[in-house]
Write a structure and sequence with these properties.
- The complex is a heterodimer of chains A (178) and B (490).
- In chain A, 46% of the residues lie in helices and 11% in strands.
- Chain A has 178 residues and is α+β, with helices and mostly antiparallel strands.
- Chain A has two domains: 88 residues, Alpha-Beta Plaits (2-Layer Sandwich), CATH 3.30.70; 66 residues, no CATH class.
- Chain B is an all-alpha fold and 490 residues long.
- At the A-B interface, helix 1, strand 2, helix 3 and helix 4 of A face helix 1, helix 6, helix 7, helix 8 and helix 16 of B.
Chain lengths: 178, 490
Amino acid sequence: MSSTKYILGIFDDPDDLMHGIDKLQRNSVPIYDVYSPCPIHGIDAKLGIKDSRLGYAAFMFGCLGGTIMFSMVYYMLVHDWPTNIGGKNYFAIPDFVPVTFEWTVLWTAFGMTFTFFFATHLFPGRAPRVMDLRATNDKFIIAIDAKGNTPHADITNLLKEAGAVEVKHNDRKYVSYE
Amino acid sequence: MASHSESIIREPLITGNNITYGQITDDVLRPVENMPGKAWWIGFSVASLGSLLWVFAISYTFWFGIGAWGLNKTVGWAWDITGFVWWVGIGHAGTLISAVLLLFRQNWRNSINRSAEAMTIFAVICAATYIGAHMGRPWMAVYSLPLPNQYGSLWVNWNSPLIWDVFAISTYFSVSLVFWYTGLLPDIATIRDRATGLRRRIYSVLSFGWTGSVKTWQRFETVSLILAGISTPLVLSVHTIVSMDFATSLEPGWHTTIFPPYFVAGAIFSGFAMVQTLLLVARKVLGLENYITMFHIESMNKIILLTGSIVGVAYLTELFIAFYSQAEYEQYAFMNRISGPYWWAYWSMMTCNVITPQLFWFKKIRTNIPLAWTLSIVVNIGMWFERFVIIVTSLHRDYIPSSWAMFYPTWVDVSVFIGSIGLFFTMFLLFIRVLPSVAMAEVKLILKSSSEQAKRKILENGHVEPAEAEFYISSLGKFDSVEQSSYEKV
């Protein structure tokens, strides 16, 4: 039994990588993940990854922030300490607009970005789970779980045929833990 | 993505012949991974001396109070608010480039957005220092927050544009910071994976454990797009609210409805000028000519021309409305600006903001780097005078002639201003040393579609209309980073 844990197909060119995904899928080889130094448009559809729902989170956070600010200003100006300014209405809605808008934007931005960090497990100090150090530089990498995907030589050939410049059989999942 | 090639008649966004993904990383990270050169050290020394001056002048202000400034009882706002509005205005270009141009799918933003956003953040920090400083007792800043207190609670005045401004500027700063830092994550990961030892450890913490997996990139792009969508109205709202600080008062020359669009156009105008001032030098010193090309420079100059013209129309509209309104105080305010004791400030503003930017109608001037750089400095001077004119000339002759006065800055006023420029450049120079000044991931994204080499390949493969090919090759003439003669045999 080989000690290989992950097979990495390393590509120079994202188009070749897409070609590699096609080949693997035609041969029913499941793909663990793909790592790239820049986004590859169209890859999520190909890998069957659902659209991100962060937009909904953003909308909810925006509503929440706007509501909090509007209610807070209402409480302070209308309920808790109404000030008579030339007999004008305490509930002067146009004056509420700028701050309500600002907090809608603020909460949308922070709420959505922190949801993104939370969902993707991004936080300061997290150990980077990197399979090949060049994936953030100039290489586009398909990772295949070696377990159950045999024979490994066939997968290697598929990747090579698709244009992989290198195929690695890694004994450990991540290279970045020192 | 990569399989789609762009129309041949569009000018390339990345020049150079052997640009690979690895080459982009090497080029962009050269200043980060190596010791800086002599130019950086000279710049950094001068800038840090400026920062020291700022620290000294601000400390002096806090120790002796606002009386150290040249303010008097008629002119109670002068260089402080001028400096504040000037810096906030400069801060507008970064978000405009990163957000508005993203929504409009202007791919040329990809190589300038990072440094422009950094510039935004540093400019807003400089602006914020003025707010802190003009309070005299900066710890009183806590009273601008709606916190419960022992006076009632007596809340902040939500009807006041000054309170709106507190929320606008702080939101703008923090959202810009989030936008900038999220965009930095993939590039910090690139530095991390090339570094060793302590450097790797530091960049590893800063990278938040970024890996570049498919799902991460998909979410990253969603987040970028939504942040762009909300930052666009945000950036317009910020200077609108800054202008309301003036427009909602009853001061002649301030009490006008045209202020919001006029301030926003002026902010974009000065912001792009500052981006130009920084990038024209940075591309040379950092060797980024292939990424920040003549196309980028010319595009920014066109935006400067457009917004400068909008500002010019606003100046003329103000004059016309003062005449047409038949409001004599309003009319006097403008007569006083044009021909009063501050005529030189008004005409400096008119010359620098309206007249000289019109030179950018000439392509020769738009694509001439020393001239474009000089004009960008001229615009920055003009925009400083614009704020000075609006603020001081409206205040110094108020409704009671017996209280008319002039404003004379003290050495503290001057030092705080010059010091804030030093502070800005210190932060910017540190930024280009430790973080990538070009968004590598975003430049890599357009390498296969919009680079000169991709277009050259299309030309060499044929199947291009000869007229289009000729048009494309002739458009390369302006690029200082392209040998047009190498296309003769193509």
